[in-house]
Amino acid sequence: LTVLNAGRRYLKAEDLSGKVFVTSGLGGMSGAQAKAAVIAGCVGIIAEVDEAALLKRHKQGWLMEISNNLDHCITRLRDARKNKIALSLGYHGNVVDLWERLVYELDTTGELLVDLGSDQTSCHNPFSGGYYPVQLGFEEAKQLLSTNPGKFRTLVQESLKRQVAAINRLADKGMFFWDYGNAFLLEAQRAGADVEKRGANKTEFRYPSYVQHIMG
Q1: Among residues 77, 87, 89, which one has the least CA distance to residue 39?
Q2: Quick one: which of 51, 85, 104, 177 has the most CB atoms within 10 Å?
Q3: Which fold has domain 1-215?
Q4: d(CA 179, CA 41)
């Protein structure tokens, strides 16, 4: 319902075939995102750092494909988008790398390859394993979390700023991003990312929340 209503509201589209939805998280509540993309008929690219979560969703049949190669992900995205094939592709890697690759594609080809975007990392708990920084691999980040939580926190905040910078570039070109109620925008703001709404008070964000704007 969230993906369908985001398409209706932001893309003015009842049919999401050929549209691309990029997000992250395939763990607990976020695990349904891959299935949602296919039900809605769009191309869903979902990043997840934990291979166990990816394999679980694939085994369940909720996730159609898995890849740890961004070149392959972009090729599959372009093919499914062009041919209007419903696809759920799990990218085994950090979502920041995925967002920045989409910016690179925009800069080098002029193509905006994503229509809808969100995030379902556990950003209500970003410094205890709910969000993993792009600067480190999954296992390396887990080790740093246990040995130097202060450094881990700094890297998470740097990563959030990079993620928002990439999202902002794509949103400026027409992608529609929303907050999934996971405190992503709040933690990004605390990290110093550019998420405040222009001309509004500091409690308002430039991107909407799915609760009020989409489900409501």
Answers
A1: 87
A2: 177
A3: Rossmann fold (3.40.50)
A4: 21
Domain map (residue ranges) of the chain? 1-215
User: H or E element: which one contains 90?
Assistant: strand 87-92
Residue 25's Cβ-count burial label (10 Å; 0-12, 13-18, 19+) is buried
| Coil vs helix vs strand at 38 | helix
Query: What is the rounded radius of gyration, in angstroms, for the C-alpha atoms of the chain?
Result: 16
String of b and e for 72-97 (b: at least 16 CB within 10 Å)? ebbebbbebbeeebbbbbbbbbbbbb
The 10s digit of each residue's pLDDT in 171-192 is: 999 999 998 878 999 999 999 9
Confidence label for 101 from pLDDT (cuts 50, 70 and 90): very high
Phi/psi at 92 (nearest 5 deg)? -80, 90
Q: How many residues does the chain have?
A: 216
The reply to whether the predicted model has a pTM over 0.90 is yes
Alpha-helical regions (H) of the chain: 2-10, 33-40, 51-60, 70-83, 95-109, 138-147, 149-172, 184-191
